[in-house]
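Annex B. Sample input.
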Amino acid sequence: MAEILEKVGRIHTSSGSAWKRTQKWGEAYRQAEEKERSAAEQVEMRYGVVAPEEQGAKRMGVAMDGSMIQICEEGWKEVKVGCVFEVDQEKALDEVTGEEVEVGRAVDNSYTAYWGGPEVFGQKVWAEAKRRGWQKAADTQALGDGAVWIWNLVAEHFYDSEQAVDWFHAKQHWCAAGQTLYGEGTPKLHGGLNEQETRLFQGHAEDIAALLRREAQQTPSLQEELSPEAGYFENNKRRMNYMDLRMQGWVIGSGMVESGGKQFKHRMAGPGMQWSRTGAERMLPIRSAILSGRFDQIWQKLYNSPQN
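Annex B, continued. Sample output.
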């Protein structure tokens, strides 16, 4: 933090006093976030739904995930991280077919984070999306893993967006289920995993759910492990049409928000690192501004720094 104050704010400070300044300016950044959230709500009340002729050509997306930090005397707690991005196209090798295709990728990422319940976090993500021009985007999408709280927030704030469960999370769930189903290290495992992974990519999550549920019923000893996985695919089947999503140019992996979560964790969950509630709440908006490339922009407003 001392290095940032030196570079951006031209404030010379010792490492010992950096934390005090972080507390002061972290609170200022938090209040700035609240003002942006309030302003976004006022814009929605004033203008309502954007007319088709006012919409732009860009496509946008939002992704949400959770990361863990340690709070003094409370243990590990989840920090919810949201990422708003634009969807661009790039050429890449399709990992299933091996052919060169155009795939969607997330660009111009911005982040928000909140330590607390999903209701306020959802409002913060929605405010950031509106600040970025979400309501004027041509099309939008929402990405996440299978966490229920994520899809509840999508239903509340991003209900008209294309929804997708992260492809790599879906593969991990199938891999775990397949090892239970076929037996780890057995001859059937490799072929069974590949066959059903291809079907999963093609949009047949419902068939995979039926397979797991049938096997759970026929083999009671596997029911405890297979039934939750069957429910995962059944509950998210409409968000798992990966081949169609890929062909339409959408992003199918939530690496952008997972990377953001790792950046928050790297700064706030180092070896032996613990936070007070107040300290964590004041550091998160600073970290969000840095990862979003907005630290200096907000700093100038808060500190009244002269223009370069």
